[in-house]
Amino acid sequence: MEQRYATSPEHVAGMGTAELRARFLVADLFADDQANAVYTHHDRVVLVGVQPVTSRVTLPSFPEIRSETFFEHREGGIINVGGPGSVVVDGETFEMGHGSCLYVGRGAESVVFASVMDGEDSAPARFYIVSAPAHTAHPTTFVEAGKGNIRELGDALTSNRRTINQYIHEGGIRSCQVVMGVTTLHPGSMWNTMPAHTHDRRMEAYLYFDLPADARIIHIMGEPQETRHLVVADHQAVISPSWSVHSGVGTASYSFVWAMAGENQSFDDMDGFAIADMR
């Protein structure tokens, strides 16, 4: 588990490319037959990537969180951004296709991941986990891809026509503080959020996927009047502090997992900034 400590807007204003990427870009979350984790001190959120290839992978407790099991004091959302796979939570098996979501509540003891490989050309499952501390237990709940609360936003004329699938939220899967879902850009649309916004009540993490190998996302971050950017590839994540805008544009259409934790769970609690006011 890698530790990423919290940063202030004043600190970010003086960062160069290498430090920005070291602080906020998670470039290598997925590795064969491993569970890799990043602990960010922005709202004590943990990002985990699990990619089973030749064997099952059991989610470890990680010594940094000082718990007997990973979910002893935590909850988390899991989205499969790879090929078909399964997750076994305390003996119950959930078959997870591409883009499906599983919420695991506080107190779960055993979580085991596997890929369903149908041949040499099969893609392994890639399980992306976003976890936050939890004060109570909510039931483990599964939702198939496309079965959450669907919202259509944006316009093709502004290149941001997108479908939002809300999984873990106030009106869907219940949680203590994790809010999570998937946004898919329509063909020809590239902007994932515009106008850009902040929400000082919650941090957010983005994981980009379904992006061609030779394409990139230009992810905008920083204060609205002091923006910076990260160049992001497929299956890479960005840690976005609560004070930072988050928006981005791709060189091809793509999807991304958005996940938040913090003060409240209202998806629409955000402070927008017109592009003409940004610097």
Please give the order of strands in the largest beta sheet.
Answer: 1-3-4-11-6-9-12
Query: Which structural class is indicated by helix and strand composition?
Result: mainly beta
The SSE string, one letter per element, is EHHEEEEEEEEEEEEEEEEEEEEEE
Beta-strand percentage? 35-45%
CA gyration radius, whole angstroms: 18 Å
Give the helix level as a range of percent.
Answer: under 10%
Net shape: globular
The appropriate CATH architecture is Sandwich
Can you tell me the CATH class? Mainly Beta
Number of domains: 1
How far apart the termini lie comes to 35 Å
Largest sheet: 7 strands, mixed
Low-confidence stretches: none
The overall pLDDT, averaged over residues, is 93
> What is the CATH superfamily?
Jelly Rolls
With helices defined by DSSP (H or I, 4 residues minimum), what is the helix count? Answer: 2
Function: Catalyzes the isomerization of 5-dehydro-4-deoxy-D-glucuronate to 3-deoxy-D-glycero-2,5-hexodiulosonate.
Keywords: Isomerase, Metal-binding, Zinc
Pathway: Glycan metabolism; pectin degradation; 2-dehydro-3-deoxy-D-gluconate from pectin: step 4/5
GO molecular function: 4-deoxy-L-threo-5-hexosulose-uronate ketol-isomerase activity; zinc ion binding
Outline the structure in words.
Its cofactor is Zn(2+). InterPro entries: KduI, KduI/IolB_isomerase, KduI_N, RmlC-like_jellyroll, RmlC_Cupin_sf. GO terms for molecular function: 4-deoxy-L-threo-5-hexosulose-uronate ketol-isomerase activity; zinc ion binding. Zn(2+) binds at residues 197, 199, 204, 246. Pfam families: KduI. This protein has 279 residues and is mainly β. It has a single domain (2-277), classed as Jelly Rolls. 5% of the residues lie in helices and 42% in strands. The chain has two helices and 23 strands. It has a seven-stranded mixed sheet, with no helix packed on it. A hairpin with a 4-residue loop joins strand 3 (35-40) and strand 4 (45-50). The longest helix has 8 residues, at 17-24. The radius of gyration is 18 Å and the shape is globular. It starts with a strand and ends in a 6-residue tail after the last strand. The mean pLDDT is 93.
